[in-house]
Amino acid sequence: KMLKDGTILNHHARIITYVDIKKHKLVSLLTNDMESDPNEIIEIYHKRWEIELLFKQIKQNFPLKYFYGESANAIKIQIWVTLIANLLLMVMKKKLTRSWSFSGLATMMRITLMYYVDFYSLFNHPEKDWETLLDVRQKEDCQLSIF
After folding, report:
1. Are 76 and 55 in the same domain?
2. Among candidate residues 12, 15, 35, 36, the one with its CA nearest the CA of residue 27
3. Cα–Cα distances in Å, from 125 out to 90, 108, 117, 121, 140?
């Protein structure tokens, strides 16, 4: 390839092609790593893609639009709390018998977090427990009383 100033660029690359068994597709990867084994490069791309999916999941479910503090430590704490919350939801999602999307589970957790609820029971049988939760909520006095 030639740049506007006349400089010629030479890039050496190789294409690694393999069949993705899960998706039944032929996948081609472009790399400039000439020494590594093709299976190692395929594994690196898989791990890299998992990291990209994790970042997407965090951005969708825990948007960090603004930070609560200005110091580097405050920002680090907020990011760590987000990562821990994401990890806890992933563990909970694996233990549930009912199938949930991660976004749906995160939304339901956000809605019910301040209630005294057995989350495993609620998320495994939401129809039954949601009605119970609403009944309890409607019976509570909304106005605080000092007497």
Report:
1. no
2. 15
3. 18, 13, 12, 6, 23
Phi/psi for 146 (5° steps) reads -95, 0
This prediction's pTM: 0.66
Is residue 77 within 8 A of residue 49, CB to CB? The reply is: no
pLDDT at position 115 = 75
Contact present, 26 and 17 (Cβ < 8 Å): yes
> Are 36 and 85 found together in one domain?
no
Domain count, the chain: 2
Residue 141 lies in a domain: no
User: How many Å apart are CA 138 and CA 91, to the nearest integer?
Assistant: 32
Tens-digit pLDDT profile for residues 87-135: 999 999 999 988 899 999 999 888 888 877 778 878 887 777 666 666 6
